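Q: My labmate handed me this sequence with no annotations at all. I'd like to see what the chain might look like in three dimensions before we decide whether it's worth expressing. Could you predict it?
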Amino acid sequence: MNSLADENGIREAIHYYIEGMRTGNVEVLRQGFHQQAILCGYLGDEMIAAPIEGLYDWVNSNPAPVTTGEAFDCEVLSLEITGRVASAKVREAHEGAVIDYFHLLKHGDRWWIVSKLWDTDVCLCVLSAQQPNSEGI
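A: Here is what I predict for the chain of 137 residues:
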């Protein structure tokens, strides 16, 4: 059985991601990711696949929303927990729309992000946010 403590631990790891991206602080990002985490996703039509250090390098080389004044919004859309593993779907709005899928692993008493998958296709964000029509579709 999953506890509120597990859900809070997962949300804490995701919060480190959100706050690290918002502020451009790699040390905050590191608090959410396992050291062997990976990332895979699309920037337009270009597929990116790299160890988590690739994200840290990108953050270090780009201005943070907090310094540029650009809007940065993230919302956890769903969480699924199965024992010591979990997934989270997060909508991220900054310079376009992104849907992130985080996979997490509980090690000891701590939840860590072990992978980040994403797509920058705006259509995915629109479809995810749509409500069912009157026929439930």
